Each structure stands twice: as structure tokens, then as C-alpha cells.
Amino acid sequence: MQGIIKTSVGLTLEVKRAAIEAGEEIQDLTAQVAAEKRANSARTRRAKADGEVTAQGATAG
């Protein structure tokens, strides 16, 4: 009986460890995706602003 309990506790700890690691990986991926989206959004805003300035300069010049 003691062996079963030790095995169960060990298995439980391994499952918890695996769940924590999976959660950390998901957080890392989420942070990467968020950073990429922010970078893309900033590039889009810059391109739009550059386009507006170019368009204004073209009509004025």
C-alpha cells in the first residue's frame, strides 16, 4: 500500500510540473504573439503616416 501511495504522489508531482511548464510555454507564446502584433501595428501606423505625409507633399508640390 505504501508503494502505491508513493507512486501516486510522485505521479501527481510530475503532472503538476508538466502543467506548470505547459502554462509557462503558453505564456511565452502569448507574449511573443502580442509583441509581434504590437510591432506590426506600429509599422502599419508608420507606413500610414508616411503615406499621408507623402500624399500631402505630393499635392502641395
Q: Report the mean per-residue pLDDT as an integer.
A: 88
How many runs of DSSP E, i.e. beta strands? Answer: 0
Largest sheet, described in full?
Answer: none
What percentage of the residues does DSSP assign to strands (E)? under 5%
Helix proportion: over 70%
Report the radius of gyration as a whole number of Å: 26 Å
CA distance, first residue to last residue: 89 Å
Helix-and-strand structural type: mainly alpha
Number of helices: 1
What brief labels describe this structure?
mainly alpha; 61 residues; 1 helix
Concise overview:
The chain is mainly alpha-helical and 61 residues long.
Give a written overview of the molecule.
- By secondary structure, the chain is mainly alpha-helical.
- The chain has one helix and no strands.
- The longest helix has 59 residues.
List the helices and strands and how they pair.
Layout: H1 2-60
